[in-house]
Amino acid sequence: MNKMFVAPTGRDVPANQPRHDWQRHEAQALYDLPFADLIFQAQSVHRSNFDPNHVETASLLSIKTGGCPEDCGYCSQSAKYETNVKATKLMDRETVVATAQRAKEAGASRFCMAAAWRNPKDKDLDRVCEMVSAVKDLGLETCATLGMLTGDQAKRLQDAGLDFYNHNVDTSREFYGNIISTRTMEDRIETLAHARHAGLKVCCGGIVGMGEQVEDRLGMLMLLANLPHHPESVPINMWNEVKGVPVNATAERPDPIALVRMIAVARIMMPQSVVRLSAGRQYMTDELQALCFVAGANSIFIGDVLLTTGNPQTNRDAVLLDRLGITSALDDVQPYPAPEAAHPRNSAIG
Ligand code: SAM
Ligand code: DTB
Ligand code: SF4
């Protein structure tokens, strides 16, 4: 039996039942709940769908960096902007597999291969398919993010052993035009449909902190929650600062409580999706991350670099999860040196 909870609209919603008809006023009403009520509701949904004391650990590798023809205003890898990222060629398979093996040994359960392309050329896709098969053979979940895909390309990736395809909507429909002009929201939705149709699981989310309003953040969540299927993974990135890109002119880091509220609303609107606290953790305190986990985030990227920008050190993450009693694949890695004073049981003020 599904547990029931009372949505602020007054109608009973089975907590395990994904809905695809979210209205703006419902998302806003959730967001505006007293904090304790919102978190209680998000935790209730979380507990009826997931182990609340487990977090997934994913690792990222940029297999082809920079020189991208797209103009995403937040990105260090666009060729349109003067950033300090140097363009590289597609990595060879051996290097990718060796990096994936090290990521597994460091406590990753999923390995995501990212390329700075508008879309992959078929001959590049042949090479990526080989990488995917080899990484899958290591016993890791596989994810790729290569830009726009045709249906045929999505199927080839699925045949090669790809589990997830990451392609983000990035922001609300209303704010989108402020950030990207070379690729439309409809292009993105079409790629998501190709991935879904090919039998791939979908990883799709976006970025906060680019100067958007709360309404845009909720608009993005509505866009995701009203897709025909909820993405299995929903990455919520906080913009990682990059010098030289247009977003610098508008960027504003969200109030931490606003971020927690957004995570909680994502958890309630997409009850069965894994919500990843993605880029931007380098700016977050341990306490903020802990609140995000309580609000329903249950995945992180580990490793001190994401694609071109920073992420917390893995041993800091291991210590934080340990302090919170959260299990993850990091537990299989022994030992992560825990600084004595960082552990509450060892701390005089803990
Ligand atoms: N080129 C591919 C694409 O855009 O589809 C894949 C890689 S792209 C870097 C993947 C996602 O990373 C973007 O859609 C965006 O949401 C996120 N991202 C990129 N730069 C970021 C930054 N500086 N801070 C936070 N998230 C970022
Ligand atoms: C996603 O949503 N976040 C990841 C992954 N998908 C590919 C990328 C974050 C990139 C952060 C900026 C950088 O390191 O260049
Ligand atoms: Fe290119 Fe992806 Fe960066 Fe956009 S986000 S500029 S598509 S690498």
Q: How many domains make up the coordinates?
A: 1
Small molecules in complex: S-adenosylmethionine, 6-(5-methyl-2-OXO-imidazolidin-4-yl)-hexanoic acid, iron/sulfur cluster
The top level CATH class name: Alpha Beta
Provide the gyration radius in Å: 20 Å
Q: Which fold name is given in CATH as the topology? A: TIM Barrel
Helical content, roughly?
25-40%
Give the topology, please.
Blueprint lengths: L3 E3 L5 E3 L9 H8 L3 H15 L6 E9 L28 H13 L4 E6 L6 H16 L3 E5 L5 H10 L3 E3 L6 H4 L8 H13 L3 E3 L2 E3 L5 H12 L7 E6 L17 H14 L4 E4 L8 H10 L3 E4 L11 H10 L27
Parallel strand pairs: 3-4, 3-11, 4-5, 5-6, 6-7, 8-9, 9-10, 10-11
Antiparallel strand pairs: 1-2
Helix pairs in contact: 1-8, 2-9, 3-4, 4-5, 5-7, 8-9, 9-10
Description:
- The protein is α/β, with parallel strands linked by helices and 350 residues long.
- It has a single domain (54-342), classed as Aldolase class I (TIM Barrel, Alpha-Beta Barrel).
- It is 36% helix and 14% strand.
- The strands form 2 sheets. The chain has a 9-stranded parallel beta sheet with strand order 7-6-5-4-3-11-10-9-8. Strands 1-2 form a two-stranded antiparallel ribbon.
- Helix 4 links the parallel strand 4 and strand 5.
- Helix 4 (122-137) packs parallel to helix 5 (151-160) and helix 5 crosses helix 7 (185-197).
- The termini are far apart.
Quick take:
This protein is α/β, with parallel strands linked by helices and 350 residues long. The protein has helices at 24-31, 35-49, 93-105, 122-137, 151-160, 173-176, 185-197, 214-225, 256-269, 286-295, 314-323, and strands at residues 4-6, 12-14, 56-64, 110-115, 141-145, 164-166, 201-203, 206-208, 233-238, 274-277, 299-302.
